[in-house]
Amino acid sequence: MASWATVLPLPKPRPAPQPLCPPRPATVESTATLTLTPTSTATPRPTHTPQLTAIVTPIPISVLPGIVAIGAGWNHSLAVRSDAVWSWGLNEWGQLGDGSRLKRDTPVQVMVGTNTIANARAVAAGESHSLALKSDGTVWGWGRNSSGQLGDGTTLDRYNPVRVQGLSQVVGIAAGQYHSLAVTADGEGYGPGETTSSANWGTVARPREPRP
User: Where do the domains of the chain lie?
Assistant: First the structure.
């Protein structure tokens, strides 16, 4: 025989908990674009940086024919013709020898007063100084002279060539970053500049003979 069971009332549902902060509305990304008109005061940013083009094949310097010798420094170049020595490039230390400190994009003549360096047979370029060897065996220098690399007995920068003192019968020249070298017809080498800590040209020691 079935029996009656006690039926308990169901609990009332609890309300859903409310958030402490109301939810933020969803962010919708805009797909609109800004179009600048000629009357706009906004300045657009450049889309790219201009790239320099490297020259991988030689090109002739058409404005300077008849070159017989050349030299290249850090940011300047030298060329020799029968009439004069020519230079171009940066000129912050007077390394172009034209009496100024102006950058030159085309060749200018290296000047000694109102005269050019005629009858030069060789040139050499350091970082910011220049040398020229004339056919009479004398050497001339101009440009930066902070380490005495011009060999004129001073450390004054020269915007025009000055003759290197105490040298004659020179047959070859070379220029480093802050020093210069010369060799004479008798085989002696001379060099002023940072390595000798002197503003005067001194004899370069001969290299030792290799041991057998």
Answer: 69-190
